[in-house]
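User: Last request for today: this protein with magnesium ion, please.
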Amino acid sequence: MSRIRILPEILSNKIAAGEVVARPASVVKELVENSIDAGSTRIIVEIEQGGRKLIRVSDNGQGMGRDDALLCLERYATSKIAADPDLFAISTLGFRGEALPSIASVSRFTLVTRETSADVGTQIEVAGGRINKVSDVGAPPGTLISVAGLFYNIPARRKFLKSIDTEMGHIADTIASMALCRPTVQFRLSHNNRIVKSWAPAAEPMDRVADVLGTAIKKELYTVERVTADIDISGWIASPRINRSTARGIYLFVNGRWVKDRVIQHALFAGYTGRLMKGQYPVSVLFLKVPFDQVDVNVHPTKHEIRFVRQKLVHDTMRDAVADALRQSDPTRWRTNQPRIAELPRGSATISEPHAEYNMPPTHDHQGPQVGVAADRTAASTSCAAGADDMQKPLPAAEPVDTAAPPIDPTARNGKLAHQKPLWKQRFFADLTVIGQYKGTYIICQSHDGLMLIDQHAAHERIVFEQLKRQSKAHRPAAQRLLLPETIDLGFRETQILEKLAPELDRFGLEIEPFGGNTFVVKAVPTLLDSAGISGLVTQLVEKTAEVGVRAEMETILDECLMVMACHNAIRANQQLTDTQIQAMLEQLDACDNPSHCPHGRPIWIQWRLTDLEKHFQRIV
Ligand code: ADP
Ligand code: MG
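Assistant: Here's the final one, the structure of the complex with magnesium ion:
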């Protein structure tokens, strides 16, 4: 007798439920997706006891006739695709025909549905996958599905449900993401008969974003927009000042589908490079549109995962779109409408208005200090923390600043206006009045409307990082040949890494050659780098590469290497600087693309506005 048999349908549905229905939030997701696919404009979700007791979703969509209502509970029954080719052109959220039978097999399930044109609706009651009753009922047009006692017949699964709050949190996240991608649909979520969220149809997608993420975030959002022949990216990303400790503020949608895709998430992080610290996550709502045949959504039953045909193209386009949005929008936050023309040196008044702008750090309404990034300071990466290190290293010569203005005399702090550079060169830091240095670590400055502290190590790290990067892109940077080449001995694994890395480092003017076995010689060092301790630096570069992973993209590895070099070369904390050095540093900071964060994402400056200080001193209320 044969040992192999086809499983009964109820059992196979239960098995499918193992994948499709992980927790109450997955039920909510599947039901709401069905409501969206049915063209609903109003979706109401009612939950009791975190979904353990009850999940009820009702909509005003197209509804189903009796035959369809019975069919939809069969495995692989769907109205959304019909033939093979359809699988490669999926425009609906559902298509697998698995959700309803799966859910119905692990709960006490009731479906009430009525087509608009029908006089009467259909009610079907199911328990553990068995249809108990089918009847006509009076019902409004649309569909109502209630799922009671989820996993009542699989005690092992029920035991694994988390606390009510945790499950409700997942449900709220699910509704939030659905609401974000369908702004014109009205949503309501209630828990134990109390309304938790209620979102009216939004006239503008941005209004829905503000509804979901909170209005406070609205003014910190930057628009992302990029349309190429193959990809259309739109949405919003928050300033790096707003960040979270989990990925829960990241909402990604591909062709209207909420996804948790590794590739896009990685691209998003790559776009924020240098603006967030390790462990900080950005907040963003991004919509990607690609031709339906360019994305496979049939990767996993939950349909959260997808695969792009041209993964690298999608990744790089997304990364660049995010990076450009940050680059363009962050500096604009620096502008304020402080007096301008009045302060212009005589003879410069002909400068056209758009150029006559000073750059100012962002202004906030709160009373705390403004920082380059609103960071949880305890989480600061220690790898580059400006620790007590009294190594005396000279500040490298300033990179030539392309301006026709006379050089600034750093000692003439109060007579600065006489030397003011023409305003077509962006200046903010160079125009600060330096008050002094605190603990040999922070530079205290007076800005137009506040008091500013600049972390000299973080600032200089950023400067060296950008200079190295810029130089390596333009041409091979000037290198200094070592009179006595330094040798380095490495372990087996490190040797493999350096063999691969050395030709790439050559682009920065760091010349390293194999010397047989596990030994290497450093022959030349970029002039921007201090040659003292170079072998230690090379070892660090190899270690960093091992940490990032040799399989990472070379550009990522090299960026990490540049950060290590920048940190190696940057002036330290506890180092007295001369006025000239400080002024040179401020000038160079103005030339930076991102003068607000060190390459690891730590803030470079903190500012207290005068009005906030005055409030603290109770001079004003
Ligand atoms: P899929 O969504 O993958 O097609 P489901 O099991 O989720 O599979 O649903 C099966 C079918 O039931 C759908 O294709 C659709 O025709 C119908 N259906 C489910 N929910 C609704 C709804 N809320 N309104 C109208 N039709 C629905
Ligand atoms: Mg479905």
